[in-house]
Design goal:
Strands 2-1-3-4 form a four-stranded mixed sheet, with helices on one face. The chain is of the alpha+beta class. The protein has a domain at about 60-180: Glutaredoxin. Helix 5 (about 150-160) runs antiparallel to helix 6 and helix 6 (about 165-175) crosses helix 7. It is about 35% helix and about 5% strand.
């Protein structure tokens, strides 16, 4: 028996947590097809989202504007040392609300100011030009002061290690790279329904044009 895909079912019109903002679109103002797993569908959907939205309130309160970490990204190439005064440079997806909220949380934890932050789109044709586009926007990237580039769970381990008390926490990420990578890839694949279910899909700085699928994507890159 072939199951009908969930995306084909009509959307619930009275869901108070449905995202109706145009910024939810990555390509022209249309809402994304639902991607939630079974436990966020049907009768349990609204109670589960109420709990998720409540738990995410402290994270949403951290939203803030941050200046770009690199002043002239168009001058940088793969292997170049980023001008971040010896700090680890983290590149995040500026079209992803939950990615921006994650950056806010990490920035608050970075009490020793060992990290710098910038958007992937600003380095699309520079530092990340050697990275395939499918991987470029589907992963977190870290550039060390010497120009070494890391992706995904490896970049996450370096990020955690730079935080106060983070060396101990980063140990299992480095010792169990297979498990760490599988967990990271699971989150990256499912960040759509996670961000919608928790209300973290939107952020004051989110720009859908920074997604490769947006028709105006080229206008946001390298500058």
């Amino acid at each position: 028996m072939t199951r009908r895909p969930f995306a084909a079912r009509p959307a619930r019109s009275r869901n108070p947590f449905a995202v109706r903002s145009a910024s939810d679109s990555l390509a022209g103002g249309q809402r994304h097809a639902p991607e939630q797993p079974w436990f966020l569908r049907g009768p349990v959907s609204t109670p589960a989202q109420i709990l998720a939205h409540g738990a995410a309130i402290p994270i949403r309160l951290l939203a803030r504007e941050r200046q770009p970490a690199v002043a002239e990204p168009e001058l940088l190439h793969p292997g170049d040392r980023p001008p971040t005064a010896g700090r680890l440079l983290l590149l995040f997806d500026g079209g992803c609300g939950i990615c921006l909220h994650s950056r806010d949380v990490i920035a608050v934890l970075d009490r020793r100011h060992r990290l710098a932050f910038d958007r992937i789109a600003r380095h699309d044709g520079g530092l990340l030009s050697d990275v395939p586009e499918a991987e470029r926007y589907g992963s977190w990237h870290a550039i060390h002061p010497d120009g070494t580039l890391e992706h995904g769970s490896v970049a996450l381990a370096s990020t955690v290690a730079a935080l106060p008390g983070g060396r101990m926490l980063s140990w299992p990420l480095r010792r169990l790279p297979g498990a760490a990578d599988a967990g990271y890839r699971w989150f990256a694949r499912n960040r759509g329904w996670i961000s919608r279910g928790s209300g973290l899909i939107n952020h004051p700085e989110r720009d859908p044009r920074e997604q490769p699928s947006h028709p105006d994507h080229g206008a946001t890159t390298n500058g």
